[in-house]
């Protein structure tokens, strides 16, 4: 038995809305309209994605994959509450380690520190695990508590001095790493909903987050009082922003969303020659390109290769797609071209994609079908 | 709209996307009296619900209401929608009471009217003084004038309750410290209890684990409640439920505190504090009647106590932090009582951020006292985690949910220039530091009350009047209530 | 506190439809037959309402006409109609339908469970939450919630 408690004195409800809803058959979402001028593709603007190997082992959905910064190890995690580490032996990737007993519930994401010595894991059990290989084997050396419920994402800053986590409790946390101790440096309540993803700028201590509130936000430390502040809000998506990725320079950001689009954002510093106004001298991020019409379902992840500059997307329509900025693209009105679509890359939703940091074109993907796959992208 | 709760309560805000009509579900057992079919519920155009029974008889359904006490008992959330509600409730409630009293007086039935007593805490006075660019004492006088004009019978300052709170914290700390030395169960560090945002967070999130560390001493607001509803009411020969007690406070969390069951006299159906009003609400009340505080007629703040007023001022402060100076007072007292050192000053060292400071006392090269002030959620978080991991070596921590403490309470007036909140905090801190400071021991009225009202400093009555308890809130796990 | 009313204490009841007739072709394992709306409806019509001892079919929350199956694209869409526009159980009902379909259907299907347009005050918000597979996955790891859903799904 329950009672619905109204907190508003007046619950106005128009009865005319109730009567006749028009039944809509289930068609692919039609609001994905291509906003680009299509042009003929030039040489080098086509490619293909070849499957190298399927990595089986996880039981149930695989949520995330992450490459070791040297590119020689892949970590994957999922519904089975384990982290699996895959190493290359000869020409084959094999599962050497299974890390268990770190979490009580689904492991949503794993992240290697940039030094490669630590692994962090974000779990639905509201904790973040820190794994260290001191004794030759990975052990969970700390469990960071504080979030009220599911931790959705975890990321290390380039320096390794900062760690960030985000959760359904709507908060983004910044942790300072001091000699294997993790202290909370900030709790950021800028988002109004579930925060899905956090990523650090490739060189600077600037954090980007993506949320169910349809926005992405950027944060940096206010040196005056060691507090972190939101310096930019990226609003344009019309539904959940699932993930985001910086390019190699950190001046561009790609976001992907439940609204079936990818958006490219360009940073404009104060006193920019384009005359874009920058309040408080904080950089402004403007959406300079929208990739719509390509994806037919929610896009769950995006990876921007810092070597090849290729963009890969993981989509709920089971496909992986590869994009690249056209060679004749303008900086402030860039054009991105779809180079390859791998339809049915998996038999169910693709949840994550990650470019290998050292081998150009090597891509890992994770899916609801329980598999991790390795792909090689080749220009045609 | 921005919430006027402390950031700690905002974090527990798990209303998710759900719109206010769905915000809060309170499961209740319903005794089914009839098993019938055919009755329907209709929604009327004005939003009211009507049940149409068989035969066409219509019955207006009562709107379910949720009280702050329900909020406290629920492990769910404090929602932003409720903050709207609370703010409206307090203002309309206050206006209603004042009008009711006025019309009773006008009808010649003044003997049936409630006696309205307003208690002023120092932080909102500073906030209003700064906003309306008035000297502090003048702001207190004009605010008093405003309340009198509305129909208040008495306006008093809360300094006397602050003094009780500081003295009780000192005594409690010494007891805990000695008990810990003798390996009895004196839980250290002792954490202050005057911030209801922090207490609420501890009760809902950390439960029995952290509550034993929190000081048993009531907050100044609730000590004031006991003082008004027990002592002053008997002096005035009025029943407690005959007095309507309003407090002027720096944050909304104080409203939650006032509605705790612990501070409700069931027999007399009387709350120690009936209504909490904050700086921003006062500003909006003034504005809605086209008034500026600087234009309201002044009146002196009342001093209903038998002993002489210790300072010729309307309102004063205490040494130390603008949250009430708990760390300062307890540190100085402990240095004297426990270590035998008479210190004149307390020097804090800023740690990781300006909201986390510590002060230590060394004797023969050993640290004998280690105190800290932790403000804001991130520092509370680190403190709690340190205690959990048994790595916290503090003896005493002054804990406030808001960064910069109570001077920056969630319902203090916002700066007109929205980009300068830090400048405003700095200004208010300076204003607080410039207030005349009184040592609680110098307040002869407090001594008088210990002797004659409480019957000494160890009596049961003292415990009842000045101490309280905390209750871990069980996580509700009825599926109907789970937000996912 | 006067909680003297259940949201919808006496909802209107509807007649259950007849059992589906099974054709000989369907009984034959040699013939590959596709899912149709009736089969999907049969999976969900027996789900109990969280607060009434009645099924979603009896309450007219689900109807066969509001089930759409696209075998070619592996898509199934179910629209449900809460009994009243402020029903706070709507998300739980939607989740129960979703869970029942996730458990019963081959994983290739993309399942979409939504409020029938115009029948709930928080329609958009509820649809968004039901479509968020991460939120659904997390909800299904909550033992109290899953116990409640199992109670709804179990057909006695």
TrEMBL record, chain A:
One Gene Ontology CC term in the entry: cytosolic [4Fe-4S] assembly targeting complex
Chain positions of WD repeats: 55-86, 100-132, 144-177, 188-220, 234-266, 343-380
Presence of the UniProt keyword DNA damage in the record: no
Residues of the signal peptide: none
Keywords from the named record: Repeat, WD repeat
Coiled coil spans: none
GO biological process: iron-sulfur cluster assembly
Gene3D superfamilies: YVTN repeat-like/Quinoprotein amine dehydrogenase
Pfam family, one: WD40
Lineage: superkingdom: Eukaryota
Known role: Key component of the cytosolic iron-sulfur protein assembly (CIA) complex, a multiprotein complex that mediates the incorporation of iron-sulfur cluster into extramitochondrial Fe/S proteins. As a CIA complex component, interacts specifically with CIAO2A or CIAO2B and MMS19 to assist different branches of iron-sulfur protein assembly, depending of its interactors. The complex CIAO1:CIAO2B:MMS19 binds to and facilitates the assembly of most cytosolic-nuclear Fe/S proteins. CIAO1:CIAO2A specifically matures ACO1 and stabilizes IREB2.
Family to which the UniProt record says this protein belongs: Belongs to the WD repeat CIA1 family.
Protein name: Probable cytosolic iron-sulfur protein assembly protein Ciao1
Lineage: Eukaryota, Metazoa, Ecdysozoa, Arthropoda, Hexapoda
TrEMBL record, chain B:
Annotated SUPFAM superfamilies: Fe-only hydrogenase
Gene Ontology molecular function, alphabetical: 4 iron, 4 sulfur cluster binding; metal ion binding
The keyword Protein biosynthesis appears for this protein: no
Entry-linked InterPro entries: Cytosolic_Fe-S_CAF, Fe_hydrogenase, Fe_hydrogenase_lsu_C, Fe_hydrogenase_ssu
UniProt KW keywords: 4Fe-4S, Iron, Iron-sulfur, Metal-binding
SMART domains: Fe_hyd_SSU
Pfam families recorded: Fe_hyd_lg_C (PF02906), Fe_hyd_SSU (PF02256)
Domain Iron hydrogenase small subunit: 418-474
The organism's place on the tree of life at top rank: Eukaryota
Family: Belongs to the NARF family.
Functional summary from the UniProt entry: Component of the cytosolic iron-sulfur (Fe/S) protein assembly machinery. Required for maturation of extramitochondrial Fe/S proteins.
Protein name: Iron hydrogenase small subunit domain-containing protein
Organism: Gryllus longicercus
UniProtKB/TrEMBL annotation, chain C:
One BP annotation, GO: chromosome segregation
Record keywords: Chromosome partition
Coiled coil recorded as keyword: no
GO cellular component, one term: cytosolic [4Fe-4S] assembly targeting complex
Domain spans labelled MIP18 family-like: 39-109
UniProt keyword annotation of Cytoplasm present: no
Family listed: Belongs to the MIP18 family.
Name of the protein in its database record: MIP18 family-like domain-containing protein
Organism encoding this protein: Gryllus longicercus
